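Quality-control log, excerpt.
Job 1 of 2 completed; input and output follow.
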Amino acid sequence: MSTSGKRRTVGAALLIALLSLVAFAVPANAEPPGIPSTETAKSWLSGLKVQPDGSMDGYDREKFPHWSTVSGSCDTREEVLKRDGENVNVDSSCKATSGSWYSPYDGETWTQTSDVDIDHVVALGNAWRTGANSWTTDKREQFANDLSGPQLIAVTDNVNQAKGDQSPDTWVPPRTEYHCTYAKLWIGSKHRWGLTINSAEKSKLDSMLGSC
């Protein structure tokens, strides 16, 4: 083989390798879809039904099946990791093998998926006591795996665990710069799913929108 032929062969091999890497590199949007504008959030907040939270009687996380298969071997958690991460690479089983994840709740960045939780913005327990207790299991599964609305976001695991099932009147992200967006996420999800809010929750959300 001539020198020029060898160069073409090596060049083709390098191009194929590069394209292979690009195919597995997933660009990041870094935020959930469907976040309302501030004015829309204010309008939606005023339209949410205000009433005391209901009981936790009968609640079980298993009544909100997650994480559901999205396609092939990819489940909802893996889809959010790909969406919210930077330079995410996935293997043939759809598991994120490398990348970085910025948590807007606390401003920390992580490179191990074990340090990252997928937060249900409106926690499953909160949803249960504000309307989801009367839903079918199928609807609760759709809620718990909602990739089309502002309900799922990748954040630092221990921050998510500290949140638990609290609403904004008792817990907000430690990073104050994110309070405006968090309020819009919360309102957007409650509006989308027709969930109620309590009076303290409404007051706090209104105050948070004032920081926008």
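Job 2 of 2 completed; input and output follow.
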Amino acid sequence: MTSAGASAVAFSGSFVDMIMAAILSLLLAWVQLFLTARQRVVTNIFEIGTAGIIAFLARALGSTGYFCYGSLVSSAIILILPGWFICLGALELGSRNIVSGAIRSVWAIVYTLFLSFAISIGSEVYDSFGPAQPSASSTSTEGSALQTVVVQGSFSSNNTAFDNQFQNGGFGFAQV
């Protein structure tokens, strides 16, 4: 339920994204509860491996056009993100336990980097043999929906902190 709610609220997912994020999160929970209880070797790497598998499946579902890849992969792994360790590290740093707070904070950052590395590996594995994905670097616009659009106009701020007028790329300054 957490992943389904996070898909809609935090990652702007649709109703079908909510359902699929819940299913992918159930896969993560199944691996965590049943597979790691039986195999001690798996307990050290299950988060990283499962994040890669979830990214692979989310990329495959995202290529169908019915699901959003970013919403699926982000919300499916939300339960293994190291938020608690970041909170503990910040509290320990605030209470002047510099060594333990720094160790917890650095561990949480490294763990987050491992998770993002697993997500990118899972996505790239699917891209290596899956159908071609649209990329931002494609220069050919024939037969595709990629087009260049030029928007001209002006923007006037009603904020007192930013009172300059923005016109065609300038901030009210003289352009050379």
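Post-run check on job 2. The first helix runs from residue 2 to 9.
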